[in-house]
Specification:
The complex is a heterodimer of chains A (461) and B (309). With 461 residues, chain A is α+β, with helices and mostly antiparallel strands. Among the domains of chain A are: 71 residues; 248 residues, Porin (Beta Barrel), CATH 2.40.160. In chain A, 18% of the residues lie in helices and 44% in strands. Classes of the chains: A alpha+beta (461), B alpha/beta (309).
Chain lengths: 461, 309
C-alpha cells in the first residue's frame, strides 16, 4: 500500500518534469514571437509549478497520514526518524474521539477528549505508551454498547474424609459469567450465569431502576434474596471456600436463597445512621420454599443500619425475615428470622496492607410440619485479617441445627489462609473440622483457586 | 405475616413522601480531595463540596461504604476523576445512590478527565499481564497544573449551567484562579529550574503528569508493574538502574509500604521522599495551589539533601 502510493507519486513527479525541457526548447526555436510567447510560457510555467506544488503537497500529506496510521498499528515499530519529512499533519482521529466509557456518553458529546499525542514523559516498567487510540472506526463502534463481560473461575479441591457431604477431590466448582450494562437512562441490567457441574443456571439476572421517584431502588428478575450477609454474596466474593453450615441447614442449601422476584428498597433519612429498608416478593419456588399454587409467594424483609465509627472503622447491623410455604404441603409455612452484625477496620493510610472484618449471623427457623412447628437455630461467627498486601488469615465457627429436626446438630471450626497474587486471582486454603449430627467427624483440607478475566468488577463491601 | 409486610411497605411509602428538601446551595460530591479543591476554587461559598476519598488514601482502593451512598443520595453534582480510577468502588455507590441526577450520562455526572490532557493512553493490545493497567490512560492527571486550569474551566461551565443565577460569580472566581495559578506556575518553574531533568524512581505510576509538567525524568518504578507489589528481581534491577544513572531520589505515595523503597535507598545512597499526591495528603497541602507549593518545596529540599546538582 505504502510502496504503491510512493510509486504513483514518483511517476507523476517524473511526468511533470518532462514538460519543462519541451517548453524551454519551444522558446529557443521561434525567436520572432519571443515577447508574446515568453509571457505565455511564463504563465504556463507558473501554472505547472503550482500544479506540481499542489501534487507534491497532496502526496506529502497522504504519505504523512499513512505513516501516522502505520505508527498506530499494534506491534509495528514506529517509522524511523528522518526517512521522510512529516508535514504539519499530526495523527488526528478522523472523527471526534468517543467518550472514555460508554457510561459517560452524555458528557462526551459536549466535550470530546482532546486528541493529544503522548509526550515521552515517564517511560519504563513495561507500561503501555503511545498515541491516543483512533476511536470511531467500525470495529470499535460495534463494541461500544456491549455489556461489560467477565468470567470468574472457581476451582476447588478437597483432601481428607467426609462421609456426610463429600466434595469431589478436584472440580471446577463454578464458572461465573457476568454481563453488566446500562439499559437506558432509567435502568441498568446485571446478569450472572453460573456454569457448574450440574449445568448452566441463571444465578442472578435482574434489572435495576436506579432513578425512581421517592428515593426507591427497585430490582426485578432473578435475585439473591437480601437475607443477611452470606446469602447475598456470590461464591467468589465469600471469604471462605464453602458456605457456612447455617446457610445450608436453615436457608436452603449450598446455593442459598435465590428466586424470581421483585425487590424494593428505600433509604430512611435520618441524621444518625445509614438506614435501609428492603421488601421483596418472590415466586416462592426455590431450595427453601415451595409454591403449591400461584398465590404461594415468598416474602423477604430486611432492615439494615450502618454507621462509621471512625474513618477506619465501621459497624454494619441488620435483621431479616423470610416467609413462605414449604415442601410439606400447602398449609405449611417456613419462617426464618436472621440477625447479622459486621465490624470492619481498615486504616486509610494502610488500606492496601491491613484490614479486619468480623462478622456473625444468627438465624432462627420455624418450619411447619405435620407433627407441629419445628423451631431451630443456627449461627456462624467469622473473622478475616489482612496481615500483608497479599495475605489474609481467617477463622470461622459454625453451629447449626437442621431445619427439619432440632435434635440434629452440626458444628465445627475452620481456619483459612488466602493469598492474592493480584487483584484478579486468589488462592485459598481452608482446614475444616465438622462434627455432623450423624455422629461422624469430618477432617478436611479444602483449597480454592479463584480467577477473573474481563471487565474489572467492583469490590463487594 | 403477609399483613406485616404490607404495613411495612406502607410505612416506607409514607416516609418517602415526607421530608421535602429545601433548595439551597449546589451540593457537590467529588470522588477525590483534589477535585473537591478545584470545585471550591470555582464554587466558593455558593456551593457545598465534599470529597469521598481522603488525600492520604490510595484512590484506587476506596471502600464503597454505605455512608458514601447517603452523600451521593443528596448530591446535585458528582465530580469524578474517571479513566477507571474509581472503577472498583464508584459504580455500585452510584447505583445505590437512588439519585437520577448523578447517574453516568446524566447532567449531574461530571468526568473531569474529559477536558484534561491524559498521558500513557495505551495503544494496541493490552492485557493484565501488564499488571493493573488503566486502559483509558494514566488517571493521575490532576498533578499537572495545566490540567487544573482545564478542569476549572470545564467546572465553571458546568456550575454556570446548573446554577445560572451565579454564573458571573463562578466566571469571576475561575478567572481569578487562572491568574493565581499562572503566577504560581512561574514561581514553581523558577524554583525548580535548577533541578530540571533530575532523574527519580517512583513507587507507582502516579507522577507521569507531574514529571511532565516540571521536567522530572522517571527512570523506573518500585512496582514491577502497576498494582503488583515489588519483587526481589525487579528491586535488584531498579537498584542497578539507579546506580548506573546516579539516581538519588525515590518518590513514594503516602499509602505505600516503605520497606522496599528504604532497602533500595540503603543500597544506592538515595533518599526516600514521601510526597503527597493529593490535596490533604499532608496538612500543609490544603488546597490545589498549596499542593504544588508543598510538593515543589519538599522535592527541592530532598534534592538538596541528597547533594545532587
Amino acid at each position: 500500500m505504502f510502496q504503491h502510493v510512493l510509486a504513483r507519486s514518483v511517476s507523476s513527479v517524473a511526468a511533470v518534469c518532462c514538460l519543462f525541457p519541451g517548453s524551454v526548447w519551444a522558446q529557443t526555436a521561434q525567436p520572432a514571437q519571443a515577447a508574446q510567447s515568453q509571457a505565455e510560457l511564463r504563465e504556463e510555467l507558473q501554472k505547472l509549478r503550482a500544479e506540481f506544488d499542489s501534487i507534491r503537497d497532496t502526496y506529502g500529506a497522504r504519505l504523512a497520514a499513512l505513516e501516522a496510521r502505520l505508527a498506530q498499528q499494534p506491534g509495528e515499530p514506529a517509522p524511523a526518524p528522518g526517512v521522510a519529512p512529516v508535514p504539519a499533519m499530526p495523527a488526528v482521529p478522523e472523527t471526534p474521539a468517543p467518550p472514555a466509557a460508554p457510561a459517560a456518553a452524555g458528557q462526551a458529546a459536549q466535550a470530546p477528549a482532546p486528541a493529544t499525542a503522548v509526550p515521552a514523559g515517564a517511560a519504563g516498567a513495561g507500561g503501555p505508551q503511545g498515541t491516543l487510540p483512533v476511536y470511531g472506526n467500525a470495529s470499535a463502534m460495534s463494541k461500544i454498547f456491549n455489556p461489560d463481560i467477565a468470567v470468574i473461575g472457581n476451582f476447588t479441591g478437597a483432601v481428607g474424609t467426609n462421609d456426610v457431604e463429600p466434595r469431589p477431590a478436584l472440580q471446577l466448582d463454578e464458572a461465573e459469567l457476568s454481563f453488566q450494562a446500562v439499559v437506558d437512562p432509567y435502568a441498568r441490567a446485571d446478569f450472572f450465569l453460573a456454569a457448574t457441574p450440574d449445568g448452566l443456571d441463571v444465578e442472578e439476572g435482574f434489572l435495576t431502576f436506579s432513578s425512581l421517584p421517592g428515593g426507591l431502588l427497585m430490582k426485578v428478575g432473578k435475585l439473591k434474596a437480601q437475607f443477611g450477609k452470606a446469602n447475598t454474596l456470590h461464591s467468589h466474593a465469600m471469604p471462605w471456600v464453602d458456605q457456612p453450615l447455617v446457610v445450608k441447614n436453615l436457608l436452603g442449601g449450598d446455593e442459598g436463597f435465590n428466586d424470581a422476584g421483585i425487590s424494593v428498597s428505600k433509604l430512611i433519612p435520618n441524621s444518625f445512621l445509614f438506614l435501609e429498608a428492603t421488601g421483596e416478593i418472590y415466586q416462592g419456588q426455590n431450595e427453601l420454599f415451595t409454591s403449591h399454587e400461584r398465590s404461594n409467594l415468598a416474602y423477604v424483609g430486611r432492615l439494615r443500619g450502618y454507621r462509621d465509627v471512625s474513618e477506619a472503622a465501621n459497624l454494619d447491623v441488620g435483621t431479616s425475615i423470610a416467609y413462605g410455604h414449604n415442601a410439606v404441603g400447602e398449609d405449611f409455612t417456613t419462617r426464618v428470622i436472621g440477625v447479622d452484625a459486621t465490624v470492619r477496620y481498615r486504616p486509610l493510610r494502610r488500606a492496601i496492607y491491613r484490614r479486619f472484618i468480623g462478622r456473625t449471623e444468627l438465624m432462627w427457623s420455624r418450619q411447619g410440619q405435620e407433627a407441629g412447628d419445628i423451631n431451630t437455630f443456627g449461627m456462624y461467627a467469622s473473622g478475616e485479617y489482612q496481615f500483608a498486601r497479599r495475605w489474609f488469615a481467617g477463622a470461622r465457627y459454625d453451629w447449626s441445627e437442621r431445619a427439619y429436626d432440632s435434635s440434629l446438630r452440626d458444628q465445627g471450626p475452620s481456619a483459612l489462609i488466602t493469598y492474592w497474587p493480584s487483584e484478579f486471582s486468589q488462592i485459598r486454603g481452608q482446614y475444616r473440622r465438622t462434627s455432623y449430627a450423624e455422629g461422624s467427624t469430618a477432617n478436611e483440607l479444602l483449597f480454592q483457586f479463584l480467577f477473573s478475566i474481563g471487565a474489572h468488577g467492583a469490590h463487594t463491601f | 405475616m403477609k399483613r406485616i409486610f404490607f404495613i411495612a411497605a406502607g410505612l416506607v411509602a409514607v416516609l418517602s413522601i415526607a421530608a421535602p428538601r429545601a433548595e439551597a446551595a449546589l451540593n457537590i460530591i467529588a470522588t477525590t480531595s483534589d477535585l473537591a479543591a478545584l470545585v471550591t476554587e470555582v464554587g466558593g461559598d455558593k456551593v457545598t463540596v465534599e470529597a469521598l476519598a481522603r488525600g492520604y488514601q490510595d484512590p484506587h482502593f476506596v471502600e464503597a461504604k454505605p455512608s458514601f451512598v447517603l452523600k451521593l443520595n443528596k448530591a446535585d453534582l458528582l465530580v469524578a476523576v474517571g479513566r477507571e480510577l474509581e472503577i472498583g468502588w464508584l459504580p455500585p455507590l452510584i447505583t445505590q445512590s437512588r439519585n437520577a441526577k448523578i447517574q453516568p450520562g446524566a447532567d449531574g455526572y461530571f468526568d473531569a478527565s474529559l477536558t484534561a490532557r491524559i498521558l500513557e493512553i495505551p495503544s494496541g493490545q493490552i492485557t493484565r499481564a501488564m499488571g493493573d493497567v488503566h486502559p483509558l490512560g494514566n488517571p493521575h492527571y490532576w498533578l499537572d497544573p495545566e490540567n487544573g486550569r482545564l478542569i476549572v474551566k470545564a467546572l465553571q461551565a458546568k456550575l454556570a449551567q446548573k446554577d445560572p443565577a451565579n454564573a458571573s460569580y463562578y466566571a469571576q472566581r475561575a478567572a481569578d484562579f487562572d491568574r493565581r495559578l499562572g503566577e504560581a506556575q512561574q514561581r514553581w518553574k523558577a524554583t525548580f529550574a535548577p533541578y530540571k531533568g533530575i532523574k527519580v524512581v517512583t513507587y507507582h505510576r502516579s507522577w507521569a503528569n507531574f514529571a511532565d509538567a516540571f521536567g522530572i525524568e522517571v527512570i523506573g518504578y518500585v512496582e514491577p508493574k502497576p498494582g503488583i507489589p515489588p519483587t526481589p528481581q525487579h528491586t535488584l534491577d531498579v537498584i542497578q538502574a539507579m546506580r548506573a544513572q546516579q539516581v538519588k531520589l525515590i518518590i513514594v505515595e503516602p499509602y505505600f509500604d516503605l520497606k522496599t523503597p528504604n532497602s533500595i535507598a540503603s543500597q544506592t545512597g538515595a533518599k526516600v521522599l514521601v510526597l503527597p499526591p493529593s490535596v490533604g495528603g499532608i496538612p500543609q497541602a490544603s488546597d490545589y495551589l498549596k499542593l504544588f507549593e508543598t510538593q515543589i518545596s519538599m522535592l527541592v529540599d530532598a534534592i538538596k539533601s541528597t547533594g545532587a546538582k
